[in-house]
Amino acid sequence: MNTNTAHAPRLADQRRKEVLRQCLSVGIATGAYGISFGALSVAAGLNIWQTIALSALLFSGASQFAVVGVVAAGGAGAAAVATSSLLGMRNGLYGLQMSRLLKVQGLRRLPAAQLTIDESTAVAIGQPELAAQRLGFWGTGIAVYVLWNLSTILGAVVGDALGNPKRYGLDAAAPAAFCALLWPRLKSGDTRAVAAVAAVIALVVAPHAPAGVPVLVAALAAIVAGLLPSVGSRVPHDLDEPSTAPEEKPPI
Amino acid sequence: MTPWTTVLLASGLAFALKFLGYVVPHQVLDGVIVSRVTAMLPVALLSALVAVQTFTATGGALTVDARAAGLAVAVTALLLRAPFLVVVILAAATTASLRALGWG
């Protein structure tokens, strides 16, 4: 094994602060949605402890909303579990990629796995250098975990008395953050094509599938693009091996 | 299935799926095609997340509301090389302001 990939060089303080700011802003934007989850879950008929257990143990927003949605609609427990697990499959995909970046062994794989969600993966892969990718994963994972769970409790206890997170535009903050993470990756025609196709697929699928499924289906665009030799051969070098991407990439 | 069974079973399976990614041997990812796919995956996932979180309502119906304006401002800010936090705050502020004015 190449020791350069096992031990990432330390980040400069400035860069470290930059990454941590991203972690925190994604954590706050996402965590705020825990309030609506908590309120919705209690309204659906789960008690406060079951609501808290979902955020602490399941910890994957789309799956949690799916469980609560099926329960609220009077659906069977089996249907709730199946929908939740179908959505959770994408975390397995993220885990495949994160395990390669994080190189975690033994028991550390347990917290790493639990924190493997959309947001932690997105912030990690949005970083150009390995040390920042790792910091981005752990920082965002922990920030989202803490804030998501605290706000779930808050939402479950005081319901929607706190107000709608939409009032603060937080539902636009999350896509803006993802857009900023995507931005530096759109340099080649191939990545722009994949991004466009993925967005279109997701929007076409969205009205006909439960939350979370459209993003999973859109991932097929990446798989097809990777399999096509004409596309794959033009993938720029820095995208072939994200963990060794050149550092001159402009920071986000 | 009692509510507790549903909650714990869904949680257990969710963790198992996450953990699977960490125990599958790394050699699985070493092929050329697999590395191309994993390089394109974040682009597709991020783009799909942006699209879904901006242009769909609860239940998945397509919609254009104040979030779209927030995203447009975010893209403009990115074109002007604004820092990450500024992009995010501008998007949220734009969306919140439009809603306060009664649109979207």
Order of helices and strands of chain A: HHHHHHHHHHHHHH
**What's the shape of chain B?**
flat
Task: Tell me the helix content of chain A.
Answer: over 70%
What value does the average pLDDT of chain B take? 88
Radius of gyration of chain B: 20 Å
Strand tally of chain A is 0
Strand content of chain B: under 5%
**What proportion of the residues of chain A form beta strands (DSSP E)?**
under 5%
Strand count, sense and closure of the main sheet of chain B?
A: none
Question: Could you tell me the mean pLDDT of chain A?
Answer: 81
- Tell me about the biggest sheet of chain A? none
Q: What's the helix-strand series of chain B?
A: HHHH
Catalogue the unreliable spans of chain B.
none
Main attributes of the structure:
A: 252 residues; mainly alpha; disordered C terminus; B: 104 residues; flat
Give a description of the structure.
- Chain A has 252 residues and is an all-alpha fold.
- Chain A has one domain.
- In chain A, 71% of the residues lie in helices and 0% in strands.
- Chain A has helices at 3-6, 13-31, 33-44, 48-58, 61-72, 77-102, 109-114, 118-125, 130-158, 170-182, 189-205, 213-227, 229-232, 237-240.
- In chain A, helix 2 packs antiparallel against helix 10 (170-182).
- Chain B has helices at residues 3-23, 32-55, 66-79, 84-100.
- Chain B folds into 2 domains: 1-28; 29-100, no CATH class.
- Chain B contains 4 helices and no strands.
- In chain B, helix 3 runs antiparallel to helix 4.
- Chains A and B meet through helix 2, helix 4, helix 5, helix 6 and helix 7 of A and helix 1, helix 2, helix 3 and helix 4 of B.
Brief account:
The complex is a heterodimer of chains A (252) and B (104). Chain A is mainly α. Helices cover 71% and strands 0% of the residues of chain A.
